[in-house]
Amino acid sequence: MAAEREARRLLSTSSSRRCYPTPLLLLLLLPRPLLSGAAAVRSGSPPQSAGASVRTFTPFYFLVEPVDTLSVRGSSVILNCSAYSEPAPKIEWKKDGTFLNLVSDDRRQLLPDGSLFISSVVHSKHNKPDEGFYQCVATVDNLGTIVSRTAKLTIAGLPRFTSQPEPSSSVYAGNSAILNCEVNADLISFVKWEQNRQPLLLDDRVVKLPSGSLVISNVTEGDGGLYRCIVESGGPPKYSDEAELKVLQGPEEIPNLVFLMRPSSVIRVTGQSAVLPCVASGLPSPVIRWMKNEEVLDTESSERLVLLAGGSLEITDITEDDAGTYFCIADNGNKTIEAQAELTVQAPPEFLKQPANIYAHESMDIVFECEVTGKPTPTVKWVKNGDVVIPSDYFKIVKEHNLQVLGLVKSDEGFYQCIAENDVGNAQSGAQLIILEHDVAIPTLPPTSLTSATTDHLAPATTGPLPSAPRDVVASLVSTRFIKLTWRTPASDPHGDNLTYSVFYTKEGIARERVENTSQPGEMQVTIQNLMPATVYIFKVMAQNKHGSGESSAPLRVETQPEVQLPGPAPNIRAHATSPTSITVTWETPLSGNGEIQNYKLYYMEKGTDKEQDVDVSSHSYTINGLKKYTEYSFRVVAYNKHGPGVSTQDVAVRTLSDVPSAAPQNLSLEVRNSKSIVIHWQPPSAATQNGQIIGYKIRYRKASRKSDVTETLVTGTQLSQLIEGLDRGTEYNFRVAALTVNGTGPATDWLSAETFESDLDESRVPEVPSSLHVRPLVTSIVVSWTPPENQNIVVRGYAIGYGIGSPHAQTIKVDYKQRYYTIENLDPSSHYVITLKAFNNVGEGIPLYESAVTRPHTVPDPTPMMPPVGVQASILSHDTIRITWADNSLPKHQKITDSRYYTVRWKTNIPANTKYKTANATTLSYLVTGLKPNTLYEFSVMVTKGRRSSTWSMTAHGATFELVPTSPPKDVTVVSKEGKPRTIIVNWQPPSEANGKITGYIIYYSTDVNAEIHDWVIEPVVGNRLTHQIQELTLDTPYYFKIQARNSKGMGPMSEAVQFRTPKALGSAGKGSRLPDLGSDYKPPMSGSNSPHGSPTSPLDSNMLLVIIVSVGVITIVVVVIIAVFCTRRTTSHQKKKRAACKSVNGSHKYKGNCKDVKPPDLWIHHERLELKPIDKSPDPNPVMTDTPIPRNSQDITPVDNSMDSNIHQRRNSYRGHESEDSMSTLAGRRGMRPKMMMPFDSQPPQQSVRNTPSTDTMPASSSQTCCTDHQDPEGATSSSYLASSQEEDSGQSLPTAHVRPSHPLKSFAVPAIPPPGPPIYDPALPSTPLLSQQALNHHIHSVKTASIGTLGRSRPPMPVVVPSAPEVQETTRMLEDSESSYEPDELTKEMAHLEGLMKDLNAITTA
Q: What one-character DSSP code corresponds to residue 794?
C-alpha cells in the first residue's frame, strides 16, 4: 500500500510539471510496482527461517521504471524512477552506460523520488547531449545494487518534407482523392492540414494516414480548394507547398479502376495500432473489402478492425495473431483489382520464468533460472549488483538464458538481474543470493535454483564425535574433462554406512573452491565432470555424520589429460549440381585446424537411404560423378590432421539436374468408346526413370494402313488419360505415348492397336441377359465368371453382382464392363449362397442371371513337422565370431533352397546357468554369429520353418571363441607395507573384469615419479595367476607409484591407474597409500582449524599390548598342534591294525604280507544301454565321508551350480577294475570307512526344505576302464562344464548329489558308484569333462525320500532309483570322520559282503532276462 501511495504522489506531482508532449508523458507516470524483477525478488521474502542466525531476503525493487520517451528541442522531460527498500535506496542515473554527474549539472537534476528531470532539451545537428539510453541505478549500502530497464530518449529533429502535395490535382465527384505530405518519422504525430488556410477538421470521410498523407473519400464540390500541411514541433511552424484540388463532374469516357494508394508492409509492436492504406479510383466508385490469408475480414462486427475513409484498414490493439498477409480488393462491378501487404508483429521481452531468491553455502554451485519470450527472440545478459556478469569458468550461461555460478565464495552475495532485450524493448527481473555460514542450515525453499550436485539437506547438528579424514583418496580414473575419485572410510568409522562425503576441488592457484557430494550414504566414489584438459586440480574429501562435518583429507593434486587437438568444421561448404549425374562440392580451410590439414573426407548419401559413401579429397573442391538423375543428395566434409578426423560440417543437400525420362509410360491401354472415339489410358514412368518433374505427355496415333501419317497431341500436367475423337468408323488405329520433362521427350511406348466400331451402339434400352454364369465355391470365397450378352449392339457399361445366404439381395458389387470374372471374399464356410448377375448401362439394369453355390467346409490339416537340420557345425573365426553351418535333408541333393523356408539359429553360453537363448533367422545353410564374448564356450542349434510347418531343434554343436588380450586392467590394486620390514611392500590386486582368456602373468611397474615415461619405470614380473607380490629393498619415506598390467596368451592388457604409496619412515610406522580420485550429493562444508586426533598413529602402549597378544596366540597354537599330532598318530596305529585284521579275515591266511592287493571286490558295474552314471560329488577335504543325503527323483529337482572352477581345484575319480591295489580299496571295511550308509529312496515325500548348497566338485562320466590311485592336478583349470566349490560361501546344509538316472525301469538303471578312498585327489586326464545338469533355477525344493541301509538289500529289494551321496560340508567333516574311524568290525563287513553278492546275483538274473 505504501508503494501505491508513493506512485500516486508521483503521478500528481509529475502532472503539474511542463513536459512536452503530454500524451507520451502520461505513459511515464503509470505506477509499476511489480514491474519486471520485483515479483521474482519478492517471491521468496520473507522465507521461513531455519534458525535465529538465518538472514532473510530484503525487499528491494523498482516501483516505477523509465520508459521510452519522444521529446523536441527546448522542451523539458521527466524520466520517472522510484525504488523501494528499507532503508531507502540511493538513486543514480546512467546515460549510455556511464554514470551522470548531476551535482554540477544545471539542466539535469535528480528529483526527490529518484526521477530524472531535464529542464531544457538540447539538440542540434552536431551536438546531441540529451538523446540516448537512460538507466536508473538503485543502491543500498551493505546490501547490493539493482538497475532498471533501459529507456530511450528520442529528440525529434527539424521538420523536413520528404514529399509534398502535387500543385494541382483533380478528382471526379464521388471518387477518392489523396494529398501526400510525408515528413521525418519522429514528427509524423505533429502534422496537421489546412484547407484554404483554415484548419481542416477530420471526420469519417476525411482522414490523415500514419504517413501524414490526407485521404478524402466520396469527394463533393465543397472539397475543392487549396490544401497545405503544417508541422508544429515546438518551434515556428513549417508549411508545405499549397496544392489545388479540383472536383470534376461526369466524365466523357469512363476511367479505369486503379489504385491511388496501395497497401505497404508494416511492422508493429503488440498493443499498438496499424493502418494499411488502400485507396482506389474509378467509375462506378469501387467498393473496398479486405482478406487475410484467404479469409474475408468482417470489419462491421469487429471491434478492432475499422475501415477508414477511402478503404484503408485500421487494426487496433495488435496481437501476434494479427500477423500475416492482407489483401485489399477493389471492385466496381466492371472490374476487380487487388493488392497485398504484409503485417509483421513484434513483441517486447516478457518473462515466462523469473529468477528466484537463493540461500547457499560457500563452494556450492547454483543456477539462477530466467526464461523469456519475445519477437524477435530476446538476448539475455546478467547483472550482479549493477555490473554486467562476464562469462568465465565460474560464471556460465546455461540453457541459453540461465546463469550458473560455480564454487560460491562470500563475495558472490548480492542481487542478480536477468536483463532481456530485443529490437522493440527490454525488461529486467532480479533475485537475491545470500551465502550462509557453514553451521547454518539452508531454509526450505523451492529447490530449483540449486544444482543436482550441491542440493543440501542440512539439519541442525547435534553434539557428538565427528568423523576423521577419509583414507586412501585416489584418482582411479583421469580423463581430459573428468576425474573419478575413490576413497576408504575414515578410521573413526570403519563401516561408514551412514556417512556422506563432500569433495572440495579447485584449480591450482585459484581461490574459488567447488564442492561435489555423494549421492547416497556410504558411497565412496564421485566423478567430477566438466573439467578443463591439461589442468591441475586440488581435491580434498570430507566425511559428515549426524553430528556434522569431520576432518578433511590431505590435498590430492591431479592433472587432467591433454586433449587431442583436432580440426574444426570446414566453413562455407556449398554444393551445386553440374549435370544430371554430377554435383560439385566446395569448402574452405577450417578456422581451427590445430595443425596442418592433411586431407579431407567428403561424405555423401542419397536422400531416403542410410548408406553413406565417402571419398578422400586433398583440395577444397570435388565433383562426384555417376549420381542418379534428379535425385537429392546430402554432403558433409571432415578435415583430417595428424591427430585424426575433426568436427564434421553440417549436411548440405542438393538435387542433381533433371533430364529427359529414360523409360516410357507404363500400362498403356485403349478403350473404344464408339465409332468415332477411343480413350487412351496410361501410367507415369517409374519414379527412378522419370529424371525430373513430368510436365506432360505426347500422344502419337495413326491409321494402321497409313503408318507415315502420324497425328500428335500434347497432354499437359499430370493427366493420365485422353479422349481421341474424330476418328473414322471401323478403322484400326495405332497409339503410343511418351513422357515430357523440361529437358525434352523421353522414349515412347510400343504401338498399341484398337479398332473403332462400324456403327454406334444402342443405349436406348437396357442390356440383355449375360450369356452365361459360372461359380466355383471355395472355403471362404466364390469365384464368379461370365460371358457378355449375345446382342453386342446394346451398350454395356458394367455388371452388377448380387449375393447372399438364401437371397441374392444382401450385397451388391458393380464391376467394369470389360471384366469377366470376380472373386467374392469373406464368406462363411459350409453356407448356401445365391448369386445374380445383371448387365447395366445408363438406361438401367438388364435381366438377371441366377446361380447358387455352397462354400466348402473349413478343415485345417495339422501340418506335419519338418525334419530338423543335421550336421550342425560351429567354426570359430575369431574372438567374437563363430560361423554355424548345417545341412537340410528335406532339400534336394544339391542343397539349393527354392522355396520360402527359413532357418532359426539359437545360441547361448552356460555361464551363468540362467542365460537366455539368442536367436537369428537365416535363409541360407550358414549363419555368422557375431558379438560373442572372447574365450567362452557356446552351444548352438538350428530349426527350419516353412509356412506353418517347423522342425524341432537340431542336435547341439559347441564352439569356444578364441582368446583376446585383456581389455580391462587388474582391479582393486592396493599396496601395504610388510610387518617388521619397512623396506618391503606387498602389492595385492584382483584379476581384470574382462580377462578374455586365462591369465598367464602380471607385470608390476613402479616408480617414484608418476609422470615418468613408462619405459623408465621398474618392472616386476609375476608368473601365473598369483594376486599378490612382494617388492623389497625400497627406500624409506619415499612415495612410490604402482601400475599393474595383466597378460594372457594373446598379449598384454591395459595398465591400471597409478596407485601411490609412501614407505614408512622407520620400523613400526605405517606407510600411507592412496589411489589417485571420486565424488558425490549431500554436502557439508569443510571445517577450519587443526586436525582432530582421529586416525593418529598408534601409541607405544597399544603397540606393546599388540605384541604380547601375538606372542601368546603363537605359543597356544604350537601347543595345540603338538597335542593333535600325538593323538592322530595313536589313532592311525589302531586303524592299521584293524586293516590287517580285516585282510586276514577275508583272505583266510597271512600269505599276502599285510596287504590285500589281490582282493577282488564284486563287480557291480552293469553295462546296459539304459545305464547312465553321473559323476560323484567329491569334497575338497582330503578325507571326505559320505552323508545321508536325499536325492530328487528327476533332473528338474536338482539345483544347478555355476559352471566354473579355479584351476587349482583337484579332480578325483574312482571306479572298480578287475584287480585293485590296497591304496584304492582293499576291503569293504575301507569302503565303509568312507561311506557309513548308502541311501536309497523308497517313496517320495513333498518338498520340505530349500537347499542353498551346491556340489563342490568337477563332473566326469563314469568309465569301467578308469584307473584308481593316480594323482593328477589339472593344469588348465576346470572347463565350462566344471562346478565351482561353494561350501565356503553358502550356509551349512545338505549338498546336492550329482548322480542322475534316466527314467526307465529302476533295476535296469541301477548302478553302484565306486567310493573314493582316503588319500590325495585323483583325476583321469583321458576322460573328457562333460556338463552335469544345466539351466535349473536356484533354490529348488528338494524332495525328501525314505532310506534304508545297504544291509537291508539282501532281504527286500523293491524297484528303486539309485541314490549317490554327496560330499559333506566342511564344517561337518571332522565329526563324521570320527564316526567313520571306529564304527565297523570285520564281522559287519562280512555280512555286508554277503548282501552285496546276493544283490549281484539278482541283478545278473534281471539283465539276462
A: B
